[in-house]
C-alpha cells in the first residue's frame, strides 16, 4: 500500500520560493492501479521525484507497505528505491546493450550471481512477451517493444511498486492499448501496486481502479473510479464521461436543458421514454455518452425539455429513479 501524507515540496528560485507540491495526500491500496492525472505544471514530475527520493520533500511523508521512505537515511536510499520499479515515457534503454543485457543491468549493479541473472532475465523476457528478442538491440525494436524491455527492467529487482511516468504518451494508440493491457496483467499476476502518472484520460479509463486529479500542486479530486465518475458536477466525471459540444442553433426548440448521469442498472433503463410518458412532454436529446469504468456502466445525457414542463416535478422524478440531475441552462 502507498500512503502519501501532506507532501510539500518548495524550491528556491532566485529570491523567491516556488511551491511545487502543496499538501498532497492520497492512498493506493495494495495490488491496485491508481492514476494521477493533471496538465503540465500540475506537479506530477515533482511528485515522481519525491516518491522515488530523487528529491527530498520539504515536509510530509511517503509510506510503502508500512515503511516511511522519507525517513530513510541517505545511505539507505538505494536500497529503498529497489522497492519501486520505474517505467519512463521513453524506455531510456542503453543502445550498446541487447534487450537481455538492458534487463540484466540492475541485477548486475545489485551484485547478483551470473546464473541468477540469466534465469531472471529469461523469466522477465517471457513475462513481457519478448522471448525471441533477447539478442536484439534497441535500434532493432519498435517503440512498444522498447517499452516492454523497460517494464521488464523495472521488474528485475522484484519491486513492490511499479511507478509509470507517462508510459504511453510516445506510442501510437494501438501500441498504447497493448502496453496498458500488459501493465494491468502484470499488476494482477504479480500483485503489484501500480501508480501511473499521465495527462491522458484514456489511460485512466482503460486500466485504473482509482484516480487523483492534481492541480497546482494540490489534489483537487481523488477516489475510486466509480465514485468520482458518479459525481455529476465533478471535473473528473466530466472528463471520464465527456459530452460533445452541442451549441443550439437558430430555429432549434427552446426549453430548459438538463444534464443527466445514469449509473449501474439505470444506465441501461429506458429512462427518457418513461419520462416522456409520465409527463406527456417532448424530450430532445442534445448529446450522449456511455462508458464502462471499472466494470460499471455509466451514461451521461444532455437533454432539452418542453418550455412548459414542470421542472421541479421532473427533477424529483429523476432523482427517485437514481438519476443525478444538473440544470445546464
TrEMBL record:
Q: Which Pfam families match?
A: ABC_tran, NIL
What family does this chain come from, according to its entry?
Answer: Belongs to the ABC transporter superfamily.
Offer one example of a GO biological process linked to this entry: amino acid transport
Q: Which UniProt keywords apply?
A: Amino-acid transport, ATP-binding, Cell membrane, Membrane, Nucleotide-binding, Translocase, Transport
Q: Oligomeric state and partners? A: Homodimer. Forms a membrane-associated complex with FtsX.
GO terms (molecular function) for this protein are:
ATP binding; ATP hydrolysis activity
Gene Ontology annotations for the cellular component aspect, listed alphabetically:
plasma membrane
Q: SMART domains under this entry?
A: AAA, NIL
Protein name (Swiss-Prot/TrEMBL): ATP-binding cassette domain-containing protein
Task: Tell me the function of this protein.
Answer: Part of the ABC transporter FtsEX involved in cellular division. Has ATPase activity.
Amino acid at each position: 500500500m502507498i500512503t502519501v501524507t501532506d507532501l510539500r515540496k518548495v524550491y528556491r528560485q532566485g529570491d523567491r520560493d516556488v511551491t511545487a507540491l502543496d499538501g498532497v495526500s492520497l492512498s493506493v491500496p495494495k495490488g491496485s492501479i491508481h492514476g494521477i492525472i493533471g496538465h503540465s505544471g500540475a506537479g506530477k514530475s515533482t511528485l515522481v521525484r519525491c516518491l522515488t527520493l530523487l528529491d527530498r520533500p520539504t515536509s510530509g511523508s511517503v509510506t510503502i507497505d508500512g515503511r516511511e521512505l522519507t525517513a530513510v537515511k541517505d545511505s539507505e536510499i538505494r536500497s529503498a528505491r529497489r522497492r519501486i520499479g520505474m517505467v519512463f515515457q521513453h524506455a531510456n534503454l542503453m543502445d550498446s546493450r541487447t534487450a537481455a543485457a538492458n534487463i540484466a543491468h540492475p541485477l548486475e549493479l545489485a551484485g547478483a550471481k551470473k546464473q541468477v541473472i540469466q534465469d531472471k532475465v529469461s523469466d522477465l523476457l517471457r513475462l513481457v512477451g519478448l522471448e525471441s528478442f533477447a539478442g536484439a538491440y534497441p535500434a532493432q525494436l519498435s517503440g512498444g517493444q522498447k517499452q516492454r524491455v523497460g517494464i521488464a527492467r523495472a521488474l528485475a529487482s522484484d519491486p513492490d511498486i511499479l511507478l509509470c511516468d507517462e508510459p504511453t504518451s510516445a506510442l501510437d494508440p494501438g501500441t498504447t492499448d497493448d502496453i496498458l493491457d500488459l501493465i494491468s496483467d502484470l499488476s494482477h499476476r504479480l500483485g503489484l501496486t501500480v501508480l501511473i502518472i499521465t495527462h491522458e484520460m484514456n489511460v485512466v479509463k482503460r486500466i485504473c481502479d482509482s484516480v487523483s486529479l492534481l492541480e497546482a500542486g494540490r489534489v483537487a479530486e481523488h477516489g475510486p473510479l466509480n465514485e468520482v465518475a458518479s459525481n455529476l458536477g465533478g471535473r473528473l466525471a466530466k472528463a471520464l464521461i465527456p459530452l460533445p459540444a452541442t451549441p443550439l442553433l437558430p430555429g432549434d426548440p427552446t426549453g430548459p436543458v438538463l444534464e443527466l448521469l445514469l449509473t449501474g442498472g439505470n444506465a441501461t433503463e429506458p429512462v427518457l421514454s418513461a419520462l416522456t410518458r409520465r409527463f406527456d412532454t417532448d424530450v430532445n436529446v442534445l448529446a450522449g455518452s456511455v462508458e464502462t469504468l471499472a466494470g460499471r456502466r455509466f451514461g451521461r445525457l444532455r437533454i432539452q425539455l418542453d418550455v412548459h414542463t414542470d421542472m421541479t416535478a421532473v427533477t424529483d422524478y429523476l432523482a427517485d429513479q437514481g438519476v443525478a440531475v444538473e440544470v445546464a441552462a
